[in-house]
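Suppose a colleague, Dr. K., hands you the sequence of a protein chain of 155 amino acids and asks what its three-dimensional shape might be. Before reaching for any lab equipment, you can write down a predicted structure in C-alpha cell form. Begin with the sequence itself:
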Amino acid sequence: MHKVPVTVITGFLGSGKTTVIRHLLLNNQGRRIAVLVNEFGEVGIDGELLRDCQRCEGEGSIPILELANGCLCCTVQEEFLPTMETLLQQRAELDGILIETSGLALPKPLVQAFRWPTLRTGATVDAVIAVVDGQALASGQLVGDRAALEAQRQA
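The predicted structure, expressed as C-alpha cells, is then:
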C-alpha cells in the first residue's frame, strides 16, 4: 500500500486557513482528499464551512473529521492518533489528507506524530503551510483580531 501524503495547514485564528482549504477542495481536480479539522471552540464552525462547499456532499464526498478536544498539539496522542489510524484503514481510497490546526497549535508535535509506527507506514507529511493575515502583517501585527486570539488562549 502507498503512503498517503499529508498537508498540514497552520496559522493564527482568522488568518485564512479554512478559506485556503475550501479553495483546495473546490479545485482539487477530482482527487479524493480527507480533511481533519482541529476545532478549539464548542461549536464546530470550520468543519461546517468546509462541509458546505460543493464537493463535500453526496456521492464521492470528502470525509471531514473534526478533532474538538482542544489544541491538537496538546492532544495529539489521545485524539489525533486513533483518528488517523482509522482514516488510514481507508488509505486505498484516499489521494491525500489535509489537516487544519487550531489558531493556537504548534505544528511540530503534530509532524513528529508521523514518526509513530502506526502512522509512518501509512502516511507522510509532504508540506506544512503557514497561513498569515496579510493585512495584519502589513500593519506590523501577527493577528488581525488579537482579542479573539486571547479568548481562545484563555479557553
